[in-house]
UniProtKB/TrEMBL annotation, chain A:
It comes from Ailuropoda melanoleuca (Giant panda). It holds the Pfam family Aldedh. This is Aldehyde dehydrogenase family 16 member A1. GO terms for molecular function: oxidoreductase activity, acting on the aldehyde or oxo group of donors, NAD or NADP as acceptor. The gene is ALDH16A1. Belongs to the aldehyde dehydrogenase family. Residues 48-253, 257-435, 496-719 form the Aldehyde dehydrogenase domain. Coiled coil: none annotated. InterPro entries: Ald_DH/histidinol_DH (IPR016161), Ald_DH_C (IPR016163), Ald_DH_N (IPR016162), Aldehyde_DH (IPR011408), Aldehyde_DH_dom (IPR015590).
TrEMBL record, chain B:
The gene is DERA. Its main location: cytoplasm. The keyword Lyase applies. Residues 1-20 are annotated as: Disordered. Signal peptide: none annotated. Belongs to the DeoC/FbaB aldolase family. DeoC type 2 subfamily. It comes from Ailuropoda melanoleuca (Giant panda). This is Deoxyribose-phosphate aldolase. NCBIfam families: deoC (TIGR00126).
Length: 751, 355
């Protein structure tokens, strides 16, 4: 870099026309650190918290290694103090009218505006990111987020009637994060009335500065609390009784994978290299660099990856020679990496781009969807039809057509698969911090004693249990898989007793093999069902409703035998039919178009099916709950594997006879058997794309634990029975929200 | 390919100066011109419509790139001063007004010869570089005045003349060609022609190619700078196609605008034209120059244009033979900035000589 040489004269530069350093003064960041005597603690309840006898870590300039400050590391008791403060603040904050919260958020936006230089220099100084990126991207977006969510708070009473704030939210940030990622999450939480405790990794001053700015507004000091500490405090924060939800926020953008059609491969690679060669790396606080540095860890990661790729036969293009002891890693283009090499499977680190060729758009889609990640993708094509087809087909949260990296507070941002299933921004982001009014707060249902290794592992054997005193016609028997009833793999059955303890009938004892078959069948049916128009889906659901009504007598008597009053049984059957029709009607209205500032063109907010959805139904309201869950899932285009009520599965099996006749094969698969065992099989199945569990607290805990295997979206009732006959539950908006995933499709336009 | 590659020769010159070798001023790439571009004009390529038929410009992406490049590249202090002085050597100092007379043309020519106050240059140790603007640019009827004035000033700055029914181009081809010939006869060594927008908007690419070929021929030894009038072409895709056609037909430069359209030199348009120049270079090995014109008034703007060319085409295009800025008032703002850099004070109006 020029800065390291003696300063050239204008006469010399006149000939070389080189770029010079454009240093951004970070004096204000240092001055701010000085106000804390270069000794940062935590910011809790509107005050700096600097407890004694704590470990501390240095906060260093990632490029020079200069020590900027000392940061205290929190201990469990500091976490407790922060959660308490947030809990106290929640009582006031959540009780405020939305308009007052809106006012407060706007004041915070103003506060950020007043101190924006401090914010961007501090962020760039400690993270090494290019100051331009922070100044022109992050800081304005942070203000926009506050403004957007202020409007949401203002209209909350009207638009979000029937929902209430969850309470204290725990937010855990990963070691490489940007303060903007924190803003994406705290803005909606604060807007709807939640308060937040943020656990930031050691030596992250920017969130502390933000908390201080919020705290200095005077009123409501405890709504945003920031503590800095090691990752090991995460579980401590999560297990605090006051914390209603924990959100984990991943790293900022890593490397990229690039798929290039073979016909334009050479041309594209040439242009890519040409452009990469002109990227300027350097100190983040330089106003004319494209890329800063991200510290030693990121550097090593990239270096290791590139070395590995080279050894596996890849072509590596690096622009510019960077000395090996430099903290800057050059932008690197890796190609010719054999598809089966370990590097191809691994996550690409920043700032590396891996390019591979494809032959057809179909192949590109298969390759792009064939990774466990699914945050965002961009499609570059001059043919709109092709670009849209790819945009719809990609299993990711955000797709940009002929653009990349655009973000806006109004557009929900989320992911699929291992990129997580939570949303920030837009209406979807708000619901993350809301629950339907009247639902109990999250209790501490977590049990230390649950043995994940053995939960539901073995099925108790069942033997003939006495004479069948069933009503005629005979109980339907078998598992509904792939469109017809079949015998269970285990070739055994389990007895179902009625309310008097008499044998009502036998149902098939499903097991792991049956689950496998059911999931396979559901996958086969998925493309066909997704391709159906909402209208066609509605028609089928309505037909099913009619069939259900035709069975009213049988269903009522089955329910009665299980101890339901005749009157209630009739209501349950009637409500079930209504649910099918209601969800059928709702299938028609999904998704909408957003217009966002700074973009010419629309952003489509699509509601896409989750895919193969497994549902373990509750024991309460055995027919109504089964039908409600099924109807919502089908209306949104999912294919399902259902485990009906354990105590009373027979009404559901009755309905299965109609489903076998009416619905496409494999669309709905119903497996009876030992609930814990089936739950285990479903939760541990990597190709089940989402799982809803309504059952015991233990089962809920197991499902949440096991689903971490593929980060499938899960929805559990934590052992709390639901009132399915109430509007808020059975046909409520939560069910609709859970049954589909949002995708934002950006379509910039212009010629 | 008839790749008489003007760039190569100049590259060598540039390389030598970097090592501090003093060159005879006639060879210097900084604005001392012996015959305009220092070598022969471009020879036309055969028309190849396949180079433009598939082309489709992605406008949103171009806009984004245009936005980025302005924010990402700045120069400060010594670098700014040096870049601004360099920008001076790219300026086609222009006056295209109905009330031009020999007296203001004369003033313009002297300003072209002495663009920056001598004492300021001295402080920067740049006084011996023979710093001048790249050319003066006038209407055909004023070419004689300009040639005379420059001769009197004792310098070899080329005179550029607009031609072919500037600015609308809506006159008969015959008169347009005659206009070129007369301007060349009067001593213009560079001709800034406007293209016939009608041909672009109706997609008559062969006809456009033929017209520009005829312009080329009429120019003789003079250099041909083709004004695309991008503000009137309708789309960026048309800008790309017109650029390509103009280069195939033998233009030495392609130029954004006349300065008389409602939209003039903008970054998105420039990016498209620069990419076309790069594509043409990759295909033929010939380097074609680029001239933004119209609306470039501030010193800061000129820096952005320099970095745009540096980013998109590289340093080899940063020579008066391949890059020009058409401007009338830009020079005085640059001089003010240099004044400020040298003295630390902002200049009063009377501190700097007018052009």
């Amino acid at each position: 870099m020029a800065a390291t040489r003696t300063k050239p004269s204008a006469r010399e530069i006149f000939t070389t026309l080189e770029y010079g350093p454009v240093p951004e003064s970070h004096a204000c960041a240092l001055a701010w650190l000085d106000t804390q005597d270069r000794h940062l603690g935590h910011y809790v309840n509107g005050k700096w918290l600097k407890p004694e006898h704590r470990n501390s870590v240095p906060c260093q300039d990632p490029i020079t290694g200069e020590r900027l400050a000392i940061c205290l590391q929190a201990q469990a008791e500091d976490v407790v103090a922060a959660v308490e403060a947030a809990g106290t603040a929640f009582e006031n904050w959540s009780g405020l009218p939305g308009a007052s919260r809106a006012q407060h958020l706007l004041r915070l936006a103003k506060m950020i505006q007043k101190h924006q230089r401090l914010l961007w220099t501090l962020e760039s100084l400690v993270t090494g990111r290019a100051v331009r990126e922070v100044r022109d991207g992050d800081v304005p977006l942070a203000q926009q987020l506050l403004q957007y969510h202020a409007v949401q708070a203002y209209t909350q009473e009207e638009v979000l009637a029937g929902w209430e704030p969850m309470g204290v939210i725990g937010l855990i940030l990963s070691p490489t994060f940007s303060f903007l990622e924190m803003m994406w999450r705290i803005c909606p939480a604060l807007a709807v009335g939640c308060t937040v405790v943020v656990l930031v990794p050691p030596a992250s001053p920017t969130p502390l500065l933000l908390a201080q700015l919020a705290g200095e507004l005077g009123s409501f000091p405890g709504i945003l609390n920031v503590i800095s500490g090691p990752a090991s405090l995460g579980p401590v924060l999560a297990s605090q009784p006051g914390v209603q939800k924990v959100t984990f926020c991943g790293a900022i953008e890593g490397g990229l994978r690039l798929l290039i059609q073979e016909s334009v491969w050479d041309e594209t690679m040439r242009r890519l290299q040409e452009r990469m060669a002109r990227l300027r790396g350097g100190r983040g606080l330089d106003g004319a660099v494209d890329m800063g540095a991200r510290g030693a860890a990121a550097h090593d990661l990239a270096q290791r990856y590139v070395r590995e790729a080279r050894s596996q036969g890849a072509q590596v293009f690096q622009a510019g020679a960077v000395p090996s002891d430099s903290p800057f890693f050059p932008p690197t283009l890796v190609s010719d990496l054999p598809p089966a090499s370990p590097c191809t499977q691994a996550e690409v680190p920043w700032p590396v781009v891996v390019a591979s060729p494809f032959r057809t758009a179909k192949e590109a889609l298969a390759v792009a969807n064939g990774t466990p990640r699914g945050a965002s993708a961009s499609v570059w094509s001059e043919r709109l039809g092709q670009a849209l087809e790819l945009g719809y087909g990609l299993r990711v949260g955000t797709v940009w057509i002929n653009a990349h990296g655009l973000r806006n507070a109004e557009v929900p941002t989320g992911g699929c698969k291992e990129s997580g299933s939570s949303w920030s921004g837009g209406p979807d982001g708000l619901y993350e911090y809301l629950r339907p009014s009247g639902t109990p707060a999250r209790l501490s249902y977590f049990s230390e004693n649950l043995n994940y290794g053995t939960f539901g592992l073995a099925v108790p054997s069942t033997l003939p249990a006495g004479p069948e005193i069933g009503p005629s016609p005979a109980t339907p028997y078998g598992l509904l898989i792939g469109g017809h009833f079949q015998a269970p793999g285990a070739r055994s059955s389990r007895p179902i007793q009625d309310a008097q303890g008499n044998l009502h009938g036998y149902v098939a004892e499903g097991g792991a093999k049956d689950i496998r078959g059911a999931v396979e069948a559901a996958h086969q049916a998925a493309p066909g069902w997704v391709g159906q128009s909402p209208g066609a889906r509605a028609t089928l659901l309505w037909a099913l409703a009619t069939a259900l009504e035709r069975r009213e007598a049988a269903l009522t008597s089955r329910l009665e035998r299980h101890g339901t009053e005749l009157k209630d049984a009739k209501v349950e059957v009637e409500l079930s039919a209504r649910q099918l029709r209601a969800w059928g009607a709702r299938a028609q209205a999904q998704g909408h178009v957003l217009q966002v500032a700074g973009l010419k063109g629309p952003v489509l907010r699509l509601r896409e099916p989750l895919g193969v959805l497994a549902i373990v139904c509750p024991d309460e309201w055995p027919l109504l709950a089964f039908v409600s869950l099924l109807a919502a899932a089908l209306a949104h285009g999912n294919t399902v594997v259902l485990v009906p009520s354990g105590a009373c599965p027979i009404p559901a099996l009755e309905l299965c006879q109609d489903m076998a006749a009416l619905l496409p094969a494999g669309l709905v698969n119903v497996v009876t058997g030992d609930r814990d065992h089936l739950t285990r099989c479903l939760a541990l199945h990597q190709d089940v794309q989402a799982l809803w569990y309504f059952g015991s607290a233990q089962g809920s805990q197991f499902v949440e634990w096991a689903s971490a295997g593929n980060l499938k979206p899960v929805w559990v009732n934590r052992g709390c029975p639901w009132a399915w006959d109430q509007e808020a539950k059975g046909a409520g908006r939560e069910l609709g929200l859970r049954a589909a995933r949002t995708k934002a499709l950006w379509l910039p336009m212009g010629d | 390919m008839s790749a008489r590659n003007r760039g190569t020769e100049l590259d060598q010159v540039g390389g030598a100066t970097e090592e501090g070798v003093d060159l005879p001023s006639s060879l210097h790439p900084t604005g001392m011109h012996t015959s305009g571009f220092g070598c022969f004009p471009m020879e036309p390529e055969a028309l190849n419509l396949s180079w433009i038929s598939k082309m489709q410009v992605n406008q949103p992406a171009v806009l984004r790139r245009a936005q980025q490049i302005q924010a990402r590249r700045t120069v400060k202090k010594e670098w700014q001063a040096a870049w601004l002085l360099k920008a001076v050597t790219f300026i086609d100092l222009t006056t295209l007004s109905g009330d031009d007379t020999s007296s203001n043309i004369q003033r313009l020519c002297y300003k072209a010869k002495y663009p920056i106050r001598e004492d300021l240059l001295k402080t920067l140790n740049m006084h011996d570089k023979g710093l001048t603007t790249a050319a003066v640019c006038v209407y055909p009827a004023r070419v004689c005045d300009a040639v005379r004035a420059l001769k009197a000033a004792g310098c070899t700055i080329p005179v550029a003349s607009v031609a072919t029914g500037f600015p609308a181009g809506q006159t008969h081809l015959k008169t347009r060609l005659e206009e070129i010939r007369l301007a060349v006869e009067d001593g213009a060594t560079e001709i800034d022609v406007v293209i016939n927008r009608t041909l672009v908007l109706t997609g008559q690419w062969e006809a456009l190619y033929d017209e520009i070929r005829q312009f080329r021929k009429a120019c003789g030894e003079a250099h041909l700078k083709t004004i695309l009038a991008t503000g009137e072409l309708g789309s960026l895709t048309n800008v790309y196609k017109a650029s390509m056609i103009a280069m195939m037909a033998g233009s030495d430069f392609i130029k954004t605008s006349t300065g008389k359209e409602t939209v003039n030199a903008t970054f998105p348009v420039a990016i498209v034209m620069l990419r076309a120049i790069r594509d043409f270079f990759w295909k033929t090995g010939n380097k074609v120059g680029f001239k933004p014109a119209g609306g470039i008034r501030s010193a800061k703007d000129s820096l952005a244009w320099l970095s745009l060319v540096k980013e998109e085409l590289g340093d080899e295009w940063l020579t008066p033979d391949l890059f020009r800025i058409g401007a009338s008032t830009l020079l005085s703002d640059i001089e003010r900035q240099i004044y400020h850099h040298v003295t630390g004070r902002y200049a009063a109006y009377h501190d700097l000589p007018m052009s």
